[in-house]
Design a protein that fits this description.
Bound molecules: manganese (II) ion
Number of helices: 12
Helix content: 25-40%
Strand content: 25-35%
Number of domains: 3
Distance between the termini: 57 Å
Amino acid sequence: MTRWRYASATDTGVVRQANQDAIYVDDSLAIVADGMGGHAAGEVASAMSIDVVSRAFKTNPTLEGLESAIERANFDVLADAKANPSRFGMGTTVIAVALVVEGDQRVATLFHVGDSRAYQIRDGAIRQLSEDHSVAEEWVRMGKITSQEAAVHPKRHQLTRAIGVEDRLNIDVLSLSLQPGDRVLLCSDGLSNEVTDDQIAKTVSGGDNLSEIVRSLVAQANENGGRDNISAVLLEFDEVTASTQPVKKTRTSIAAPAKEGTKKPVTSQRRRRALWSFGWRVYAFIGSGIAVVVGFFAILHWYAYSTYYVGDDNGIVAVFQGSPGGVAMYHPIKVLDTTFPMNELLFGDSLLVQHGIVEPSLEAALNKANYLHNSFLLSHPTTTTTTTTTTVKAKA
Ligand code: MN
């Protein structure tokens, strides 16, 4: 059996007006969600995701069950934003540790989308278990910038993955390798941006009172500025069972989850007959007319914004959402500028970028931009100053 004891805290911080973070913890599930989006929308996205995931896990406490629960949360947040234009663009991170059923055991598994973090603390040492899905951290993993540069990079808050952005969702899933006495901290970036890893390690290792520890973490974040909402869920593992089939994977969902328990509207026989005799042809005609118009615009909107492309933003390589040139009245939206000027691309590539290179996701578009810039750097070793090309030059 795997068992934990826990404590948690969430706080608005010093600067923000509202707390858009949401947390959940019980004997088998712990979640931190950091919501984003204007005027109250972030709260809706984080609270809705936690509600969906925690309830679904009670009925299906398996690895598969929790993956589908997170997908369900993604669809529900997307649907709610579509139905309520004031919440357009809302989203949330989700990081969760669940004791999932494996045979007759329960094993600790991490599920993660976004830039909230999970840390493992053992004997005073700290290890980050999750990778941040942000533009800056993707660049660190590509060797483009250092982690010190990422910590102050303007793109450090730009997420490459979140709940509520698109139908397609990549979820990182990781079996935890634990010993009794290990502590695992889930936190929002309002904590990890204000308190250093060393300080977190020191605080989490200090003493037996978990509630006191999470209160101290929140207090330190506030003392250091408290510029964002701060959330922490701390778990201490008392008993541990290792998974016999440990996983470390990224699950990609593309299809909508099956609708469960859709109730048919109850209509009395008499009423149904009355409607029928009123002229079903008229209803059918009007109904299909409306369906065609609504369907047309829904498909057009989806089609217009379903892809990303790498394009030219006044001499800077940039990533846009939409199709090059736009679709009908839907113009592409610039998501971000990269750090590469257009003249640091191979000639042929720069022509392609000027027309727009279409990719299925923001991550893919970002990878493409990096790939094109790297191709240029490798063929122009003398004109750049990056360390990558210095190495190439030395070898040549
Ligand atoms: Mn935050």
